[in-house]
Amino acid sequence: MKRDTKLQLAFLCLVPFIMVLGNSMLIPVLPEIKKAVGVNQFRVGLLITAFSVPAGLVIPFAGILSDQVGRKKVMAPALILYGAGGIAAGLASTALKDPFWGILAGRIIQGIGAGGTYQLAMAMAGDIFKSQERVFALGLLEASNGLGKVASPILGASLAMIAWYFPFFAYGVLAIPAGIALYIFVREKAEFKKQPVESYVSAVKDIFRRKAPGLLSSFYAGMVALFSLFGILSLYSDILEKRFHIFGFKKGLVMAGPVFIMAALSFSLGLLLEKRRDKGLKAFVVSGLSLIAAGQGLFILLNGMWSLFLAICLLGAGVGLVMTPVNTLVTGSCSIKRRGIITCLYGSLRFFGVAIGPPLYGLSENYGVPLTVSLACLASALALILAAVFINQQKILSNEQARQAEQDTGNKLPAKPAPLISKSRKPRPD
C-alpha cells in the first residue's frame, strides 16, 4: 500500500471512529440524562432511536447521491451537520427548562448527518482498494468503529463527570474539523457522473435478483449483531448502576471491555482474511452469530457483575467475527457505480438495528430481563440459520472479481474459465 493511500485510509478511519460516538458515547451517560431530564428508561432510550432512525432513512439517499456526485462531496457536509446537531443538543440541555424535546431534535439532526458518513467511507474504501487490500482496509475501518466504541464509554463517562450535557458538545468539536479535513485531503479514485435513473435502478434490481438470498442474509447478520450489542450494553449500563452501584469513569472502563474485544477481533480478522485471500467469510459469520446467541443465553442465566461481563464479552467477540466478513461481502458484491447504494442499504439496516436495540432491551423494566433477552436472542438464532443456509461467498463476490479482472487488463472478460459469465450471455450491468 502506497504512503499516499495509507494517509487517505487514515482520514477515512476517522469517519467510523467519530460516527460511532453518536450512540456509544451516550450509552453510559443515559442514567445521568434520565435523572437530569426526568424521564423513564424507555424515553431515554429514544435518544438513541432519534439518532439512528433518521440515519437509517437518510443512508440510502446518501448512497444514491454519492454514486452520482462522489463520496466525499456527501461525507464532508454530513460530518459537519452531525457535529452541528450535537452542539444543538448541548445548547438545548443548558438553555431549556424542559430540555428533552430540544435534545431529541438535536439528535435527529445528528442522525441525518450520520446517514452520509460511515457507509460511504466503506464504499470509498471499496473504490480505492482491490482484492486483499480491500479486506484489510474494511477490517481497519470496522476496527476504527470498534475503537470508537471502546473509547466512547470512557470518554462519555469522563465528560459527564464535568456535566451530563458535555458529551453533546464533544460531537461538534470532533466532527466539524474532521469533515473539513476529509474534503481537503481525501481524493476520489473514480470519476462520478450522473447516471440515467432507469439504467441505475435496473442495474440495482438485477444485483438483488441474482444475489438476494445471500446478500440480504448478510445485511440481516450485520443488523442483528449491532442490535444485540447496543441493546445489551444499554441494559448492562443500567444494571451496573442499579444493582452494583458502579458509576462514572469506572463504569465506562467496565463497558469498554466487550467493545475492545470486538474491535481487536475485527482488526485481526482483517489481517487474517487479507492473507487467506478472503477465504472462509461464511464460516466466520456463522461462528460469530453463534457466539452472539450464546452470550445472550449466558446473560439470562448469570447474575454476578463479572459473570454478566463475561457474557457480554462473548457477545462482543461474536460481533467482531461477524462485521468484517459481512462488510467484505457487501462491498464486493457490486461495481463502483452501484457500491454507494448497495453499501448504504446495508448501512440503513445496521442503523435500524442500533435504533431498536436500547428501547427494546429497556422493556426489561416491565417484563423482566429473562423474557426480554430471550426474545431478542430469537433474532440472533434466525440470523444464524439464514447465514448458514443462504450465504454463498463465491456467488456474492464472483461478478466483482470478474469486473476487477476486466478493469486491470482493460480488455473484455475472457470466455474461459466461465463460472462467472457465460459465453452466451453478456455481462450484466451492475
Brief characterization of the structure:
The protein has 16 helices and no strands. With about 425 residues, the chain is mainly α.
Report on the structure:
- Residues 400-430 have low confidence and may be disordered.
- Helix 7 runs antiparallel to helix 10 and helix 9 (197-242) packs antiparallel against helix 15 (369-390).
- This protein has helices spanning 3-24, 30-37, 41-69, 72-95, 100-114, 118-128, 131-162, 166-185, 197-242, 248-275, 281-301, 305-331, 336-362, 364-367, 369-390, 393-409.
- It is built from 16 helices and no strands.
- The chain is 82% helix and 0% strand.
Please specify the SSE layout and strand pairing.
Blueprint: H1 3-24, H2 30-37, H3 41-69, H4 72-95, H5 100-114, H6 118-128, H7 131-162, H8 166-185, H9 197-242, H10 248-275, H11 281-301, H12 305-331, H13 336-362, H14 364-367, H15 369-390, H16 393-409
Helix pairs in contact: 1-6, 1-7, 1-8, 2-3, 3-5, 3-13, 4-5, 4-8, 6-7, 6-13, 7-10, 7-12, 9-11, 9-12, 9-13, 9-15, 10-12, 11-12, 11-15
Q: How many β-strand stretches?
A: 0
Summed up, the helix count is 16
Low-confidence stretches: 400-430
- N-to-C span: 27 Å
The structural class is mainly alpha
- Major β-sheet, in short? none
Helix content: over 70%
Task: Round the mean pLDDT to the nearest integer and report it.
Answer: 84
